[in-house]
Structures are given as structure tokens and as C-alpha cells.
Amino acid sequence: MEEGDRRKDSPGGSLQRELGRGFSYYNKHLGRLHQNLRETKRFFRDIKHTYSGEPGALDFDAKAEDLGQLQNIAFPRQEEDYLKLTVRCSPCIFILGQNCNARSKVANAILGDLLPAASCCDTETCKRRRIRFRHGKQTLVSLALPEQYELVHHLVAHKGKWDTIPEEDLNVAENEEDPAHRLAELEVTLPHQLLQDVDIVVSPCRGFQPVATTLEDYIDHVRAVVVFAVSENVLTPQDEEELTEIKTNYKLPVFFIRTNSKDKLICGSKGEPSALQEQLTELGYLKKGVCSCGAAGSGSPAPSILVEQFEKLRHLNVFSRQVLQMHLVDAAMVLNMVHSRCLDVFINKAFDMRRDLQITPRRLEYTRQKESELYESLMSIADRKQEELKDMIVKTLNNMREQLLDDAASMEFKGISIPQNGEPIGAPEVKSCILQIKELIISRLNQAVVNKLISSVDYLRESFVGTLERCLGSLEKSQQESSTRLTSNHLKQILNAAYHVEVTFNSGSTVTRMVWEQIVQIIQRITWVSPPAITPEWKRKVAQDAIESLSPSKLAKSICSQFCKRLRSSHEAFAASLKQLEDGHCGRLEKTEDLWLKVRKEHAPRLARLSLESRSLRDVLLHGKPKLGRELGRGQYGVVYQGDSWGGHYPCALKSVVPPDDKHWNDLALEFHYMRSLPKHERLVDLHGSVIDYSYGGGSSIAVLLITERLHRDLYAGLKAGLSLEDRLQIALDVVEGIRFLHSQGLVHRDIKLKNVLLDKKNRAKITDLGFCKPEAMMSGSIVGTPIHMAPELFSGKYDNSVDVYAFGILFWYICSGSVKLPEAFERCASKDHLWINVKRGVRPERLAVFDEECWKLMEACWNGDPSQRPLLGIVQPMLQGIRDRLCHSQESNKTLEDST
Fold it and tell me: What is the pTM of this model?
């Protein structure tokens, strides 16, 4: 291969510059997408490494379900493959057309006069090969197999200088037998500025190689911008067949350009479509009503267009931008959806872990307290029931006596042969008969006595078992070894103590031995004098002696003693197992807290920043960078500008924030995620989108522009200008409604103040600036907010959404006063620290003479120093409505009276 002369850009500089800017714009944003994708893949690798148990990973043994979900966070394979393909595909213009001359004319208009007119325009006999233009430091011409390697071949262009590529090099020789040389494309590298951002491929003649082959060779690794050059008045059947194949197989939009300037086939005076336009409409490339002078059609993001005047080839710039932007927007949306889904998982798990950290110690304490109450109640039953059992045994024996004696007299003995003639039997048989009579008496007595004890325990079982067992089951389930149920088993033993008494009474320990001693005495007294005859009278006598020998007090004492012994044993075992369970939870909760901290401080903020970048990329591609108007306001972390229309919204406010460090970047990214995740609500300022300005302030810094709806003024300005009492009370209701909605979404605003309440032209309020707004589970105890509106517990780092109720109480003081003047108690403070100290000591705004009694009581309730004593906003809202209705009605009555006077 020989080097030719370095070529200069062709004179068609305007088109080249416009195309160059368009492709440069695409590549710049493609690079940002690629960077975000790399960071996202690195994030998922780090997450997998953190929770997979690999060497160096954190050894968390937190709740299995917490780790399970976090371990399963991964880049979905389908989305990852799609995004990899997107960032790997560089843009490429494909020039197709009816013949070589039409294609050459388009290529020459873009790059300069590099291609000669074809010596043969017959598409069936022409042998012009495919041409690919690429960027290089030198002008070189070579033959190469597509995306493979260069062939050794002597070209005419190597022999000397040339202005246009020699015709001989463009055509395949008639006698060429080498299949590689026949399939090879002519690769031309040029130091052309446009080619730095895009390759250009000119398809070969249709008779030599079908256009589908060109697209198949490239389509998987380039982002195609397809141009179809038309030199005739109409499409030939071969053209239609080719275009149908492109539409069916590749679904690519096409830029159609007429190259024959002699034919003035533009829209007529009546707007009649040309024959070519009608053909393209029938093929499905154009829609009815599309102008053939170059206006893009509507419907799809990047529709095919027809330009019937060659001098309007500049429309290719707009078309190519649309095509490339369509792919970038889709990719940015896919990436942002991945970010948002995973970020929601982190936030939801943060809620679960925070709830676990809060509720597990309470469950343990509740379990300990309720078991202790159960144990004391059961022990008191034993003390109280002993005397009752004694009386009941006496009463039971008296009630059962005759029936027992009759049953004993008619009893048929098992395993003993009783002589029918009344003859005496031996001592062993007598002993067996007496034992069977004893078992009859004990079983009947056992059933009556123990049922009395069990009925009392069953009453307690109904009182304690439900909540206590569910609470204990939850505690045991959350342990790492979920199969361990020791504590629940001990609880069951406590509750079944009375039933165990029943078993031991039947099986023979203490009570049975006591009864047996009485039976032995009976046997000794009536058995060995002379062997008796087993008659009904004898059986009745034995049963009567046995009943009379029983001591009800001893029986009752023995039963209750057994019961207490088993209770104590089960209670001690329960306490030991609960302590073991508590120790296990203490260790687990420490790890859960570490994991919660990592999610809040590292994982969620890092992913939120990636989400902000991907969403901002999508927004800037769709709507462009907004223009900053006059300054509307300035805060601690940003400047708010007026904006005109953006993304179909008018008017807009632009909040420009320049994050000074990673922490502020992460906080801003999380704020954006929370705002974007919120459903639209009429009491919250709408967020339209975000754009990252990488050249903010003349390129010296990077800023994030949050685009929101613009309202008339803020509440501070409204109070200064003067608002009626009715308007002010309605604003208070609007603010409460907005805060309630935020709380219903799990968010805490943390900066409710005059400047963060915006008013429309009808003086209806909307809450803005969610810069400090966070879900409770994501709050780290940071001291944030505006000093005079900050609840005292904020300084401790442990607080909940009641801080917004406190802030509303202070805001309501201003609303009721109708002024922006500081309360005297706060105005006297020399510094912010002095103010905080006073607030913690209980200093609050003073009561003004204009305050209604009910309004003042509501303020005092809202700014109560004890968060648990502040009213719920669901209670505040109807109270405010009642105050508003009463005061406004009173004002109307007074006005009517004055008018009549």
C-alpha cells in the first residue's frame, strides 16, 4: 500500500461542519453513557463482593432476608448486554441508492469530490465495489475484508497523486478470480474532521452485491444512519424490493434525497404529493401529509423523511441527530430504570432494617414482661386454688360416693377368675382386685379435680398466648438458625403445666404413692385375717374404706405442689433460653446497624448519583440544556433562576446547585430520586427534570440544574405584601396537606419555612425545596434545617417526622401574625448557638394580641418539646378547617354588621 497526498476538506464546509457537530454531540454523550455504564458495572461488582462472603468481604450475619435481597442485587443480564452493545456501536452513515452516480453525488457532497462519476450506470452490469471512508492521519487507500484484514494488492491510487479515487480501484476487474478480492471493500482513510466521529460506507452496485450484505456486515457493531439517493422520478421494482427488505429485516429509518436537480418535483401550490412520495408512503416509509421538501414526519421519534431538492441535503444533519438521539435516549432510560429499581431496593431494605433495629428490643422486652405476668398469674392460681381444690375434692367425693360405690360393687375385674359359688380367693387375687378398685376411684377423682385446675389455666392461655407466641415466633424466626424454637417450647411447657399434673396424677408419683399407702393399710386391715369372698358387698366395702381414707387437704396440696414445681422449672428454662435469644439478637442487631449504615452512607448515595447522571443524560438529550434567566432567589446550596419553556413546560424555575464535594453530590442525587419517585400532588412543586451542566460558569465547574414549575412568589413575600386572614389560613391548610402527603410516602421534609412555601396567583400554597427531605429510614441524625424552625430533638440526632409538625407550629405563628418579623424570643438571641440553647430550654415564640385562642393552643401543641405529645397532622388538618370556617364566618358577620350600621 502506498501513501497518497494528504487531502483537505472539500468546499462543502457548511454541511460538513453541521454534520460534524451533530456526530460530535452524539459521541460526547455516548462517552458519558459509557462512563456511567462502567461505574454501574463497578458498583454491582462491589456489591457482589461485599455480600458474597468472598475473601475480604464483610462478614455480616444480619437478618438472612436482608442479606438475601442485597446479595441478589445484580445488573440484569438482558439490560447489561443491550447497553454494552449501545456503547460499543460507533455511528456510521450508509449511502445507498438507485445507482453509483447518485450514491457518489451524496458522498462527494459530504466529503468533497472524492468519487468519480461511474462509467457505467447499469445496475445490472456495474461492478463498483463497496467503499468505506475512515479517519486517519494520512490519506491511504487499500483493499480489506470487512472488519478483518487488509489484502495485498496494487492499486492505481498507489502510483501517484490523485484528486478523485481512480475508477480502476473502485471497480472489480472482470477477470478477477480471487474470491477474497471480489468481496473486499475499498477502505479509504482520510485526515477529515468529520470522519473523526463517523465512518461513511457507500454500498456497492446492486448487481454486484446486494445491499443486505452490506448491512449484515455492519449492523451489529455500528449505529446506522441510512441515506438512500434517488436519481430518477420514481423507484424501480428493484428499488422497492430492496427498500422492503430493509424495512422488514432492519426496521431502520431512511433519509431519502433526490439527486437530480433538473427535476423541480417539490410540493406544488396545492401541496399534491409527488409520485416518489406516494411510492414511499405505500412502502410504509412516509405517512400521509409528509412534505416532500424535507420536513420530518410525525409519529415516531426518528421517522424516515424525503428531501426532493438536493441543495437541502443539510436536513441530513437533523435526521442523523434524531436517529442517534433515539438510541441514546432509549439506552439512558434503560440504565436509569436499572438504577431506580436497585435504589428502591436499598431504600426499602433500609426501612426494614430500621424497623428491625427499633422493634426487636421492644419485642424482647414485651416477651419478658408478658411471660413474667403469665408466670405470676399461674403461681397465684396454685396458691388460690389449693383451698378451692380441697373443698372441691370433698364435694366431689361426696357427690361421687354413691355412684363410685355402685360402680365398684358391679365392677368386673380384668385378669382374675372369681368363683361363682362365693368361695374365697388367694391373696394375690385379692390384691389385684383392690388395685383395680383403687384405679377406678383415682381416675374418676383425677378427671374432676384436674379439670378444675385446667379451666383456670385455659382462661390464662386465651389471654396470653396469641400476641406473646406471635411475638416470640417472630424473634426466633429472625435468628440465623431459624429452626431453633427453644424459647417457644419452654413457653408451651409453662402453659401445659396443668396438663402435666394430670399425667403424673394418673401415672403414679406423689399423689399415687400417697393413695397407695392408704390402700396398703386397707389391705392389711381387711385382707389377711381370712381370705374374703369377692362379693358385691366386699367390693363396695373396699371402695368405701378407700374413699374415707383419702385426705382432701393432702391431695390438694400435692396437686398444687406439682403444678408449682413444673411452673418454676419451665419459667427458669424460659428465662435462660430468652437470655440466649436476646444475646443472639444483640450480636445480630450490631451487624444489622453496620449494614444499615453502609446502605445509607455508601450504597444508596453512590447509586443515586449514577441515577441522577443517567436521568439527566436522558433529559438533556430529549429537551436540551435550559437557558438561565434572571435570578429569582439564592440559598445556602444553590441559586434559583427564571427559565422559559423546557420539555413542554412553561414557565420554569431552574435551581442551580454546584456540589462542593461527594457528600453534597450524593445528597443532591438522593433528593432528586425522592422528588422524582413521588407521585404528582397539587400541594408539592412539580419536578420536571434535571440536567448536568458540565460547563457551568464558563466551564469552571459542574452544576446540576433541577427544573421545576415556577410559581408566583413565596410565602415570605406574600406576608410582606399583605395577605387576608382567609388566604393565610388556607395556606396553612395547604401546607399541612402537603406535609401529610410527604409523610404518607415515608418522607420527612426537615426544612418547612416561609421561603419553602410557594404561592400561585390565587395564593394557594405548594411545598418546595426537598433538599433535606429524606425517608426516615435513610436519615442519619444530621442536624439540618433552618434554626428557628428546628425542633429541639434535632440536636440529639434522634428524631422522626414529628419535626415537621414542630416546624409547622413555628410557621403557623408567622401565618397567624400576618408578618415576617422574628418572634422577640428569637430576635434577642445573639447567635445561632444561643438560639438553639434557648430552644432546648423550652423558649418559644410569644403570644401576640391578634392570636385567636384556638390558634394559639394549636401552635403550642405543635411545638411541644416532647415529640410524642405533638398532635398528628391528621388531627391538625380538621382543626385548622374548623378554625378557618369559624374565623372567616365571624369576619363576614362583622362586615355585614358594619355595612348595615
Answer: 0.77
